Description:
This protein is an alpha+beta fold. Helices cover about 40% and strands about 25% of the residues. The chain contains three helices and three strands. It has helices at about 25-40, 45-55, 70-85, and strands spanning about 5-10, 20-25, 60-65. A three-stranded antiparallel β-sheet has the order 2-1-3, sandwiched between helices. The longest helix is centred in the middle third of the chain and has 14 residues, at about 25-40. It is globular, with a radius of gyration of 13 Å. The N and C termini lie far apart (about 30 Å).
Amino acid sequence: MEKRSGIIEIRNLLTDRCLCLASEDTFSDCASIRFSLDLGTYPLASLQEDYTNTGLEVFEIREAEYLPRASEEELQAALEKHLKSCGLLYE
């Protein structure tokens, strides 16, 4: 499968809190994030706590934007744009 660079969004649909990440391989990174959250080992404690307390059903983990052949600078600019529009952020 071809690697797709872009922005990943993890959103709690109950609280509308989200986390946006730049990724050079959105498919693999989405799977890795889901696996880590399921195991209870995701490094961002506030996100992991919400996931553990509410479960997968209220979370959306998705590729928010596809950026073909994006440079590191383009990925970071897209990430900043998404962070501004994301609303409540996980910190």
